[in-house]
């Protein structure tokens, strides 16, 4: 796309490689009622921060309801939950955040989200000490979840 006007001329972009898909999905990071409604109206999905299982389920429900009100099919929209949690080798005891802890604890939490409308979970490991440990713990989580 180029532009030529009275004062400005913009040459066609030479960005490459081009995306594989014709449309790059846009997710809105939304947590407020207005943000959830905006995401349902304009975006391809939502990216809420996981504060708890209950809050996440409530946000997804509100997002899907708002999408239906806009005449959109919730199954066509994406939910990528962001979990800013510690992902650790050893289990976490009292005070463990939802989706945080050892691979087994996280896998159990993920199982509770089955059918809740979460398409993906993006983990931001608040406990990472070094990249090798982080990769190892996430590989263990993948082995447990995928069986």
Please describe the structure with a list of short key phrases separated by commas or semicolons.
4-stranded parallel β-sheet; globular
Can you walk me through this structure?
With 147 residues, this protein is of the alpha/beta class. It has one domain (26-146): Luciferase-like domain (TIM Barrel). It has helices spanning 33-42, 53-69, 103-112, 131-146, and strands at 3-4, 9-10, 27-28, 45-46, 78-85, 120-125. Strands 3-4-5-6 form a 4-stranded parallel beta sheet. A hairpin with a 4-residue loop joins strand 1 and strand 2. The protein is globular and about 65 Å long. The N and C termini lie far apart (47 Å). The relative contact order is 0.13. The mean pLDDT is 92.
Number of discrete helical segments? 4
Oligomer: single chain
Q: Strands of the largest sheet, in order across it?
A: 3-4-5-6
Kindly provide the radius of gyration, computed on alpha-carbon positions and rounded to a whole number of angstroms: 19 Å
For the record, the CATH architecture stands as: Alpha-Beta Barrel
Helix percent band: 25-40%
Termini separation (Å)? 47 Å
Low-confidence stretches: none
Estimated share of beta-strand residues: 5-15%
CATH superfamily placement:
Luciferase-like domain
Structurally, how many domains make up the residues? 1
Q: Given this structure, which CATH class is correct?
A: Alpha Beta
CATH topology: the name is TIM Barrel
How many DSSP-defined strands? 6
Average pLDDT, all residues? 92
Main sheet makeup: 4 strands, parallel
Using the alpha-carbon principal axes, give the shape.
Answer: globular
């Amino acid at each position: 796309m180029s532009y030529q006007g009275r004062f400005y001329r913009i040459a066609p972009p030479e960005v490459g490689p081009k995306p594989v898909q014709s449309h790059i999905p846009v997710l809105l990071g939304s947590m407020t009622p207005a943000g959830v409604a905006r995401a349902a109206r304009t975006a391809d999905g939502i990216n809420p921060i996981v504060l708890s299982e209950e809050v996440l389920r409530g946000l997804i429900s509100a997002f899907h309801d708002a999408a239906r009100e806009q005449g959109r099919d919730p199954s066509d929209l994406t939910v990528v939950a962001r979990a800013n949690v510690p992902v650790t080798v050893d289990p976490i005891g009292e005070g463990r955040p939802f989706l945080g802890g050892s691979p087994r604890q996280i896998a159990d939490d993920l199982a509770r989200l089955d059918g809740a409308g979460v398409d993906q979970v993006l983990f931001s490991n608040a406990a990472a000490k070094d990249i090798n440990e982080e990769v190892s713990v996430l590989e263990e989580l993948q082995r447990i979840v995928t069986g």
